[in-house]
Amino acid sequence: QTNDLRIMGMNKNTVLGWATFLMLFMGVVLILMGAYRYNDVAGWGFATVGIGFFCIAWVFNALKGRV
């Protein structure tokens, strides 16, 4: 019996790789929004959340090959 439910042949490591890339991209976007779009306290919040996205992306990258 073959598994016909594969979606684009993605395994767990590929999914974690894409998740890492998307989290890094969104982290950069949030940090840039905090730096260039908002000049008040909201900018600090956007930048802090962007750094949090970097931390989560680091965890996703560390999980590749272990899950």
Mean pLDDT: 86
Q: End-to-end span in angstroms? A: 24 Å
Based on CA atoms alone, the radius of gyration comes out at 16 Å
Shape field: elongated
Order of helices and strands: HH
Our estimate of the beta-strand percent is: under 5%
Helix content: over 70%
- Major sheet: none
Structural class: mainly alpha
Q: Runs with pLDDT <50, length 5+?
A: none
Counting DSSP H or I runs of 4 or more residues, the number of helices is 2
Instruction: Count the beta strands.
Output: 0
Give descriptors for this structure.
mainly alpha; 67 residues
Q: How would you explain this protein's 3D organization?
A:
By secondary structure, the protein is mainly α. It has helices spanning 12-37, 41-63. 10% of the residues are buried.
Summarize the structure.
The protein is mostly helical and 67 residues long. The chain is 73% helix and 0% strand. α1 packs antiparallel against α2 (41-63).
Give the topology, please.
Blueprint: H1 12-37, H2 41-63
